[in-house]
Structures are given as C-alpha cells and as structure tokens.
C-alpha cells in the first residue's frame, strides 16, 4: 500500500492590532513650559514581586487582574468605584444623551477586551484633556466639551506617549484661553482631530487599561470614550471641611506635593500632578489624611469671576449670563461649562474685571453669608 504523505497546512497568522506607536497621526505638539515640573525623577530599584490578587465581589465592568501593573493598582480602581459619586459621574448614557442635540455626529468608542494584542502596551496611563466650546454653523448647537488638547503619560515610565492639540469639528466659539492657554492661532493649521485621538486610545487601551487622572470622567466625555477601569484622584482624597465636596487638583498639589500649580492649565503637567498624588496614595496604602482647602491670595484672573453652584439640570450655560444681566445690569463676558453631579451643577461666570464681578455680586438681592472656607455666598 502506498503511504499517503502528510498534508501540512500553513497556520493562518494571528491578526494583531496595530501598535499605538506605529500609528501615523498628525500630532500637533504644544507646551506651556510647565510640563516637566512634575516629571518623575527616575531611580533604579529592584523589581518587586507581583502582589497576590485580592478577592473582590465580581463587578459588571472588568477589573485589571491580568498584569503586574493592574494588580498593583487594583485596590485603587476598586476604591474609586466605591465612591458615592462614581455611578453618576461615570454614567456614560447621560453624556451620550447630551450629544443627541448635536445632531448625533459624535462617535463614541469603547476599548476591546484585554488579550495578547495589548500585552506589550502600557497597562496604566495618566491622562488630562483641555476642552473648548464649539458651535454648529448650521443648527447653532453648542458643544461645551469639544476636545482641543490631549496628553497621555505612561504611569510606569513617566514617558509622554501623546501630547497633541486637537482640531475641533465645529468652529470654536470660546477657546477658554484663560484656562488652557490655547488660542485661535494655535489651532489654525492643526490636522489632528477627535477621530485621531480615539484611534490612538483604541490602539493603546484595552478594557483593563487603568486610566488615571483628576475627574477622569470629564476627559472620557471629551474623547467620547466609554471606560470604567479608572483611578481618580478626585474620588480618593477627601476635603477636610466637607464630606461631599470634590477636592481640586491645585489643593492636592499644594498639600501633597508642596507645589503651587500654574494658573494656566498644562495638560501634561496636570496629568503628572494627578499621578504624583496617586503614587502618594498608593505608597500609603490609601491611608491619607483629608486635604485642607488652603486659602490663597486672590489673583486678578480669579477675582474677576463668580462661582455659581446648586444649578438645576434644566439651566443651560448661556442662561446664566442672561440671569446676571437681568438681575444685576452687569454683563458677564463668558461662562464655563456647567459640571453636573447628581441633580445639581456648578460653574464659573467671568466678568471684565474684579470690579465688575464685585458689582454683580453686590447687586444680587440676597443676604451675603460666609461659607465654611470664609468666602461670601448668596
């Protein structure tokens, strides 16, 4: 009998996702000079053995249990999810619903499941985004969280993986230059857009990649990215004078790092400041003291604004400017996007000068009372 020769079939190569480093993206660099202020000072250390994974009650969203980095930060991810504001702030349905009046033109993305395709990627990143306000020239709809800069830092190496200006889809109606330092001329020739930012994040992140920062939900909403594996410094540190207030990043930096942050936001620096504070949290196994909201001398750029809170959900940003004009006869120059937590929101109203802001406050028909921090409120 003839022996049949064995048939050898060539195995089909396993498809792999393109490396985030190999993406050909039109990155538009931008710097305010403070990006290196909180860069990590690298010291050679002996590699620590991976910690044993703690036992947790299963959650619907994935937990980072497949890598050493994931296990290192696992408790912090869990603690972030236990915060009483987590469910409301990371409810992406509300952000997606807010995009509906914008004509449904905003595409949301969600990272793929962890697997071989991402094992060589950084497993934890720190992020910060800058936003501006844009306006649809056809419908007049405004997008108050249009992405205009994105910065991503590798948690383990402190390498800046991405730092780029982002060209918004619609014309910009408020650059918020007083906050982010970005002006019209900076974005004029930028080609990098929201879809480029999303492509980078999808090539970098799995559903177990830990994304760190301060109020990370705002960054995810700007990128239009649904992600739940987060470590948020806004949730892990408490205010000394309030059980419910969210501590600001400037107060964290001042108390923990003993550094004042610059007035103008720099997203690389902000991502690193949040990361340095979270490293402090991890080093102390979460046993950290409440943070004092230390009073600081008012600067002119702060003195020309009024803080408005307990804003009902039915109120829009543009309504607030009209309210001040109608009730005080003082015109506001601009209003920041309202940040909602639960049923109430908060924002800042900006006036031409401190004198205009003080006049508007004095003209409101209500009794001024001092709050816990000593500031007057009506």
Automatic annotation (TrEMBL):
A Gene Ontology biological process in which this protein takes part is: rRNA processing
Residue stretches in coiled coil: none
Query: What SUPFAM superfamilies does the record tag this protein with?
Result: Ribonuclease H-like
Compositionally biased intervals (Pro residues): 47-56
* GO cellular component: a single term: nucleus
Question: Which residue stretches belong to region Disordered?
Answer: 34-63
One GO MF term attached to the UniProt entry = exonuclease activity
Keyword rRNA processing included in the entry's annotation: yes
The entry's keywords: Hydrolase, Nuclease, rRNA processing
Q: Name one Pfam family in it.
A: RNase_T
Which residues does the UniProt record annotate as the domain Exonuclease?
A: 123-287
What is known about what this protein does?
Exoribonuclease involved in ribosome biosynthesis. Involved in the processing of ITS1, the internal transcribed spacer localized between the 18S and 5.8S rRNAs.
Q: What is this protein called?
A: Exonuclease domain-containing protein
Q: Which organism is it from?
A: Amphora coffeiformis
């Amino acid at each position: 009998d003839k022996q049949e020769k064995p048939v050898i079939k060539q195995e089909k190569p396993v498809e792999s996702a393109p490396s985030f480093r190999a993406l050909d993206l039109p990155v538009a660099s931008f710097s305010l000079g403070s990006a290196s202020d909180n860069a990590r000072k690298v010291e050679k250390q002996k590699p620590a053995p991976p910690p044993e994974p703690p036992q947790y009650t299963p959650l619907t969203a994935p937990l980072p249990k497949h890598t050493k980095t994931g296990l290192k930060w696992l408790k912090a991810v869990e603690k972030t999810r236990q915060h009483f504001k987590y469910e409301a702030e990371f409810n992406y349905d509300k952000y997606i619903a807010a995009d509906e009046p914008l004509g449904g033109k905003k595409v949301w993305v969600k990272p793929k499941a962890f697997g071989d395709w991402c094992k060589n990627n950084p497993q934890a990143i720190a992020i910060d985004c800058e936003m501006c306000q844009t306006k649809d020239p056809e419908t007049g709809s405004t997008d108050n969280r249009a992405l205009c800069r994105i910065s991503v830092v590798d948690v383990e190496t402190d390498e800046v993986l991405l730092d780029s200006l982002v060209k918004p889809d619609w014309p910009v109606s408020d650059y918020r230059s007083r906050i982010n330092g970005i002006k019209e001329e900076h974005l004029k020739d930028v080609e990098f857009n929201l879809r480029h930012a999303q492509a980078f994040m999808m090539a970098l992140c799995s559903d177990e990649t830990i994304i760190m920062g301060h109020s990370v939900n705002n960054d995810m909403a700007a990128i239009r990215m649904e992600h739940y594996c987060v470590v948020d410094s806004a949730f892990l540190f408490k205010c000394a004078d309030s059980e419910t207030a969210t501590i600001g990043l400037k107060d964290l930096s001042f108390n923990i790092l003993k550094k004042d942050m610059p007035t103008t936001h720099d997203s690389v620096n902000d991502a690193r400041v949040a990361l340095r504070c979270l490293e402090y949290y991890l080093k102390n196994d979460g046993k950290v003291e409440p943070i004092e909201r230390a009073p600081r001398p008012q600067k002119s750029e702060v003195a020309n604004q009024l803080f408005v809170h307990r804003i009902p959900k039915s109120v829009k940003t543009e309504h607030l400017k009209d309210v001040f004009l109608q009730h005080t006869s003082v015109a506001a120059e601009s209003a920041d996007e309202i940040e909602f937590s639960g049923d109430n929101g908060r924002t800042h109203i900006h006036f031409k000068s401190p004198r205009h802001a003080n006049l508007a406050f004095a003209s409101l028909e209500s009794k001024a009372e001092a709050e816990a921090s000593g500031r007057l409120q009506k």
